[in-house]
Design goal:
Order of helices and strands: EEHEEEHEEEEEHEEEHEEEEH
Helix content: 10-25%
Radius of gyration: 18 Å
Distance between the termini: 19 Å
Largest sheet: 17 strands, mixed
Number of strands: 17
Number of helices: 5
């Protein structure tokens, strides 16, 4: 299946009734937007102790523990399939609750943020509220590492250049997602995203969550905010039980790989 959340796009494989194994080469070939399908992340739905278990892969073939928009897209698909308005999904991040909010909106609880340097993880002890990098970003983990810069004008940032540099900064041994955010008004942020293992993306759920957490810690916003990304608007709320991510989803099409493609891509 091809799905997207605000242009943050995914290939989703349903492996609940079949055995699907993925090599990093196969993932990268599917990610090729000219010779494959193309995606920011690939997600696999597997049977689990809850309603389903999800695995996530980046476009470079590496694995990720969290993907907020893919989780929301899959939650919408499964709720429609099961005739439910809420469900529980397991990921390497833990158990995530999802809800149908009506009006085409789906929410997922992305869990509590991790704020200690060793949990991000970072390569050495550092203040995660003022990381010692030019621009003094905020480091956060939402199950995957994030580095958030607050700038005067996010649209003026050279995202491809700065994002790539920070992703591979030695302070982040597992690399990091990179965000540039600017305050537009009360509880209203503009956000642009460079995703680890992907590059520039139109939207990112976990990045939106990490940015709200960083903004709250910097006392720039309250615990609920509107976040405008290149692909559209997300709403994020940091509650006692976790960070809730809400927005629209789209299931674009369902299909099958040809046997010729499978043989060539593996």
């Amino acid at each position: 299946m091809k799905m997207h959340g605000l242009g943050n796009d995914f290939v989703v494989l349903d492996a609940r009734d079949r055995d699907i194994s993925l090599s990093d080469v196969f993932v990268r070939n599917i990610a090729d937007r000219h010779r494959g399908v193309g995606f920011d992340q690939l997600a696999v739905i597997r049977n689990g102790v809850e309603d389903a278990h999800l695995e996530f892969y980046n476009a470079d073939g590496s694995m990720s523990s969290a993907c907020g928009n893919a989780t929301r897209c899959i939650a919408r698909y499964l709720m429609s399939q099961m005739g439910q308005v809420d469900l529980s999904l397991t990921t390497d991040r833990g158990t995530l609750a999802a809800k149908d909010m009506g009006g085409g909106l789906t929410s997922v609880n992305m869990g509590l943020p991790l704020l200690k340097w060793q949990d991000i993880p970072m390569s050495e002890a550092a203040d995660t509220l003022s990381v010692p990098i030019d621009g003094t970003p905020v480091a956060t983990s939402m199950g995957n590492p994030h580095c958030t810069f607050f700038v005067e004008d996010a649209d003026s940032v050279d995202l491809e250049h700065r994002g790539a540099l920070v992703e591979h900064h030695p302070l982040f041994p597992k690399r990091t997602n990179v965000q540039f955010a600017s305050l537009l008004g009360e509880n209203h942020l503009r956000l642009r995203v460079w995703e680890r293992g992907v590059g520039v993306t139109l939207a990112s759920g976990s990045s939106s969550c990490a940015t709200l957490v960083a903004a709250v810690r910097r006392r720039l916003t309250g615990k609920s905010a509107r976040i405008d990304l290149d692909g559209g608007t997300m709403h994020v709320e940091w509650r006692e039980e976790g960070v809730w991510l809400t927005g629209p989803t789209m299931h674009v099409f369902s299909g099958n790989f040809t046997q010729d493609y499978l043989e060539s891509a593996r």
